[in-house]
């Protein structure tokens, strides 16, 4: 049907890579390159949301949780690396004599930190997903549960100022695995790592979407019971997509810390998690590029309009959201196809409704 | 294919006090097209639901040596029990080939799932030829005709290599020609597999059934060949009412209209 399609997508990723990795560092100022790096981090999380929500039908409204796991793991390592033998900055403020919390100790090791960024979200999402999907929790119930977890984690961090820095968060990182973060060359390097990871994540979901697993995931999204009667356990299929999306959120969070230089509970709570979803919906949740581009667009709006006109920005974002949902339910990425019509979108890219009425009935009964 | 049979013994299904199936026993063997018939609410579909693990039942349902009751749905499928539903349930968004490929993936390793599909499984080509869907390979299943969707479901059972095919009203809503084609297809399939059909269509049953079990109010009313069942006065009573006091000849004519009425009232 669409034999050429994979190669079109792949060359799209290639062009995206050239723009991000080669063109952007040459033409953008340091300030905007840092901003673009920040958008890349949100985009990495968004690519995962596209996989879980767009293709898997799981409305993951609490990706802030996994974003936080990666971000705080990275922030703890950078804090310790910056402090060296001295007391970490966040502890100086209230009680310089207190011992370092025990769970911080292993994060002195760079290897452990990198491992934690990968393994923490996999373990957390694995346990959470297993418990939820085996019990067939889905639809709005799943969405609310994940959202509640993001709220809970943000509250926990806020209230444990002695262990995590609380609302003030962790900041003032000077070193990044031995590199001085103030050095402009190192800033470009950190940006390139984030952009490179975004490309890697896009390649990963590209392969997912064209694989048999991708077809199976769409089948599960559209008719979970039928998949069960084909001899698969839908819980396992959804679990894989959920864990991969959690891993991507964690990677995005980890790169967010050296680029932005601060992580606070506000970056991971309910509002932040919904902003990630908004970008994905905006761009087109079931398409390959939609989530990443949507997240970057929302991120750009956030840091340009959001800082100059914060009151208005919220309304503009809300208005955009309503307009896109009303007029372009498949997001902005469906716009070219609407006008030209030459790329017949594969049916898998037509996402199922976010809330399936039948599903709700099923849970209610 | 082994000559394992499906043997259901003393099957009970209760829904919070209401006995939907109260002690049903029957068996089905490869080589015969087995029919399960009965008026609305007789418990036909509930029997299939219990065998496939969708609802809880007590008693026994064995495929060869293996007990099916109490196992999870997807594990029962992996033992070789496949089913279709009253409303055709294929993946509308995926093409015919993708639908069949997912059905064929049952025995694939998890790792191979991460690769893209190259070429078409021989089992899929065979099933396409068998069901006459070869021309529709790239068609999204959602735009197939009703009859083609049912055939696609049967083709999916074939590629997943089901030993037992439980078909819930496979010809409902089909044209006369489509019914004939479906009946002949089932007879071909039944040569090597166990085929159990739940039906309301008496004409279809008469033309293609090898053996029939009649259910009524959750119990087996009669069992045997089409002729034996039609001759059974209890069956005539259930289908025609006591006033009917019908003869065998009447039974052969009237059920057509009965079946039509039943179909209209079926949920």
From TrEMBL, chain A:
It comes from the Bacteria. GO terms for cellular component: plasma membrane. Keywords: Cell membrane, Membrane, Transmembrane, Transmembrane helix. InterPro entries: ABC_transp_permease, ABC_transptr_urea_perm_UrtC, LivM-like. The keyword Transmembrane applies. It is found in: Cell membrane. It is a multi-pass membrane protein. The chain crosses the membrane at residues 6-29, 36-54, 60-80, 110-133, 140-161, 188-209, 239-264, 270-300, 312-332. Its main location: membrane. One of its GO terms (molecular function) is branched-chain amino acid transmembrane transporter activity. Coiled coil: none annotated. NCBIfam families: urea_trans_UrtC. This is Urea ABC transporter permease subunit UrtC.
UniProtKB/TrEMBL annotation, chain B:
Keywords: ATP-binding, Nucleotide-binding, Transport. This is ABC transporter ATP-binding protein. It comes from the Bacteria. GO terms for molecular function: ATP binding; ATP hydrolysis activity. PANTHER family: CONSERVED COMPONENT OF ABC TRANSPORTER FOR NATURAL AMINO ACIDS-RELATED, HIGH-AFFINITY BRANCHED-CHAIN AMINO ACID TRANSPORT ATP-BINDING PROTEIN. InterPro entries: AAA+_ATPase (IPR003593), ABC_AA/LPS_Transport (IPR051120), ABC_transporter-like_ATP-bd (IPR003439), ABC_transptr_urea_ATP-bd_UrtD (IPR017781), BCA_ABC_TP_C (IPR032823), P-loop_NTPase (IPR027417). It holds the Pfam family BCA_ABC_TP_C.
């Amino acid at each position: 049907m669409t034999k050429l399609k994979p190669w079109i997508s792949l060359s799209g990723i290639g062009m995206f890579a050239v723009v991000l990795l080669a063109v952007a560092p040459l033409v953008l100022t340091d300030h905007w390159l840092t901003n673009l790096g920040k958008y890349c981090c949100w985009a990495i999380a968004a690519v995962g949301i596209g996989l879980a929500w767009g293709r898997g039908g799981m409305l993951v409204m609490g990706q802030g949780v996994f974003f936080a796991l990666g971000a705080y793991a990275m922030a703890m390592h950078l804090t310790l690396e910056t402090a060296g033998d001295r007391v970490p900055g966040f502890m100086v403020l209230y009680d310089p004599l207190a011992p370092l919390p025990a769970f911080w100790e292993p994060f002195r090791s760079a290897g452990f930190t990198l491992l934690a960024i990968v393994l923490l979200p996999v373990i957390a999402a694995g346990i959470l997903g297993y418990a939820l999907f085996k019990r067939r929790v889905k639809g709005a119930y799943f969405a609310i549960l994940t959202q509640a977890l993001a709220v809970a984690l943000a509250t926990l961090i806020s209230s444990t100022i002695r262990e995590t820095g609380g609302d003030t968060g962790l900041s003032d990182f000077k070193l990044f695995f031995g590199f001085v973060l103030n050095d402009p060359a190192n800033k470009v390097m950190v940006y390139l790592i984030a952009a490179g990871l975004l490309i890697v994540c896009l390649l990963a979901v590209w392969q997912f979407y064209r694989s048999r697993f991708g077809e199976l995931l769409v089948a599960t999204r559209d008719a979970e019971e039928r998949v069960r009667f084909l001899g698969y356990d839908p819980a396992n299929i959804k679990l894989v997509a959920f864990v991969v999306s959690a891993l991507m959120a964690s990677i995005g969070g980890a790169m967010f810390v050296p680029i932005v230089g601060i992580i606070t509970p506000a970056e991971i709570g309910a509002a932040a998690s919904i902003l990630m979803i908004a970008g994905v919906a905006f761009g087109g949740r079931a398409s390959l590029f939609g989530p990443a581009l949507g997240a970057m667009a929302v991120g750009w709006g956030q840091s340009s309009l959001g800082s100059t006109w914060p009151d208005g920005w919220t309304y503009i974002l809300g208005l955009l959201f309503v307009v896109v949902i009303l007029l372009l339910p498949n997001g902005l990425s469906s716009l070219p196809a609407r006008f030209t019509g030459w790329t017949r979108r594969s049916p898998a890219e037509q996402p199922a409704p976010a809330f399936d009425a039948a599903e709700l009935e099923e849970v209610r009964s | 294919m082994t000559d394992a049979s499906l043997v259901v013994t003393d099957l009970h299904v209760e829904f919070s006090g209401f006995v939907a199936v109260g002690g049903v026993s029957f068996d089905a063997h490869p080589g015969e097209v087995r029919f399960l018939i009965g008026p609305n609410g007789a418990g036909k579909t509930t029997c299939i639901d219990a065998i496939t693990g969708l609802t809880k039942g007590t008693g026994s349902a064995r495929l060869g040596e293996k007990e099916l009751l109490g196992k999870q749905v997807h594990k029962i499928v992996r033992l070789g029990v496949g089913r279709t539903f009253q409303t055709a349930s294929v993946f509308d968004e995926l093409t015919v080939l993708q639908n069949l490929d997912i059905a064929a993936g049952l025995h694939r390793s998890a790792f191979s799932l991460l690769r893209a599909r190259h070429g078409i499984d021989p089992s899929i080509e065979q099933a396409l030829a068998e069901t006459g869907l070869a021309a529709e390979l790239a068609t999204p299943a959602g735009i197939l005709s009703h009859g083609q969707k049912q055939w696609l479901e049967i083709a999916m059972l074939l590629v997943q290599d089901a030993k037992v095919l439980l078909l819930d009203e496979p010809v409902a809503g089909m044209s006369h020609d489509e019914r004939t084609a479906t009946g002949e297809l089932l007879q071909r399939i039944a040569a090597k597999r166990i085929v159990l059909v739940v039906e309301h269509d008496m004409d279809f049953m008469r033309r293609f059934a090898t053996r029939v079990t009649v259910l009524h109010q959750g119990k087996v009313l009669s069992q045997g060949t089409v002729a034996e069942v039609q001759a059974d006065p209890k069956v005539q009573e259930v289908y025609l009412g006591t006033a009917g006091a019908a003869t065998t000849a009447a039974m052969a004519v009237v059920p057509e209209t009965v079946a039509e009425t039943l179909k209209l009232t079926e949920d």
